[in-house]
Amino acid sequence: MSVVDTRLIQTAVIGVKDSDQPVILPEEPYNLDQFRRHFQGKRFWCGTLLGGCGGELMTKRYETKVCHFAHYPDHAGPAPVCDRIANGADSADHLFIKRDVIAWLQAQGLRVRVELRNLGTGPGDAVDFWLPSTHQLLRFQLCLQDYRTWYRAERELSTSSEQVDWLFGAEGPISANMVERQGYALRVKCETHGSDRRVLIGVERAGRPVTWAPLDDCRLTSDGLITPVLDELLRDGSVTQRGKGAWLRPATFPLRVDQIVFAVDAKAPAPKHSPLAAEGRYIITADVKPAGSRIIRAHVSLPDAVPMPTEQYVYRLHGVARLLLTDPDPQDGAQWAVRADGVIQLSGIEAERTGLWRPGVALPKPVRTTSAAPVPAQRPAAETTVATSGRANSTQSASTVPASDPETVARVRKALEDFARRRTPTTWSTLGTVAKLNLVRLSPTERRDLLIAVDRPATPDKPMLSALVRDSGGRPLPDMTSIIRKLGLQPPADDAALKLWCDREKDRAYHAHGTSRVRMIPARLAIGVDGRASELQATTRPKKRQTTDGSRRTGALEADLQELVRALARGQDLLPSTSGPQYTRLSKAMKKARARLDAHYAAKAKGTAHFDWLKSHTDSLSHHAQLLMQAIRAAEANFAPHPAPVAEMPKPAQPTSPPVATEPGSSPQPTEVEEAAPKSPKDSAAEQFDSLIEQFREAQRVLDVDRAEQIYRMANPIFRTQLSPAAQHQNQAIVAEMKTWVGMQQPNRSSALLKRCRRLIHRMREEKDTISTEGLAALVAEAEALSERVTLPDTDQEGLVRWQLHLQTRREAEQSASAGDPSRNRPVAEGRLSQSQILQLASAVRTLLEQTARSQSLTTWGDLRRQLGESALPRLHPDDQGEVLVTVDHDTPADEPLLSSLIVVGDGEIHPLYRHVAFSLDRTVPLSDIALRSEWTVDVLRLRKLWKHR
Question: Residue 710: CB partners within 8 Å, gap ≥ 6?
Answer without folding.
Answer: 576
